[in-house]
């Protein structure tokens, strides 16, 4: 009989946490029990796992006694506080925050791209940033077949990347705009909650995601650059692939879009070659039929685990360079599903 696992979901009541519950229920992981954990504010909330009615518990170190697997999306400070406690008690943790992503001893994993990195875990596996995940999903088959020299990405990131409160704020601002009211009065979260100023997202674009650093880049842009290198090259500072990013928040509730410009080493590659390798890659869906105006759109990607890729075309001014458009549900493949999928791979590979 195969082993069954006691699973804890940390941050269970959040937008990603609720989706983790759903993705776990649909996964291949043999689940013996599920424990839902959150802050004291959310303790007592009732949520369902499959047909079970579960009560959310307040998180303490002792919450992880007897737990085999922790799926976490409760914020970086919470992860730093509790995940080492879970590891001490014998659990393996997959964390969907930025808390451990750049730690040398913590694998940063997209299962279709670098599953072998899971073998090096010491109790914690990090989920990459949502925008990084979908980009490497689209580019990894290209890298394997033709090599990659450079990536220039501009993101069009949904409000949900800043949580459910940002979605609610976008909806309120949109109604204010339609009613002729001042949207600024409802802007409390974006571009980033901890910064000095806040701006409305409705009918607007915000070229800032996370804090702005002295380098001129936002921290989101920094993450995309260095996470991509760690995932693809196992070295966050590698010079073997040049990466730069501009990250923009757009008035879309769920699912990020990305315009990706990339240069391959094999200059004989054609756009059709690029399409073929992407179409064959697990988790990627090619939507590229310009005659019939078929291309990825956030409204169609919402609710799907897949990464959608289209508008693949060569840069006729630069040999070996191409453009593509990538869309994925940032709350699923970009967060909850990638977390659960990492756990599935841990089980399949006998690493838990």
Automatic annotation (TrEMBL):
Assigned EC number: 1.2.1.11
Binding site for substrate: 157, 249
Domain called Semialdehyde dehydrogenase NAD-binding: residue spans: 6-121
Catalytic residues in the record: 130, 256
Organism, as annotated: Lactobacillus johnsonii
Protein family: Belongs to the aspartate-semialdehyde dehydrogenase family.
GO function terms (MF aspect): aspartate-semialdehyde dehydrogenase activity; NAD binding; NADP binding; protein dimerization activity
Gene that encodes the chain: asd
Protein name per its UniProtKB record: Aspartate-semialdehyde dehydrogenase
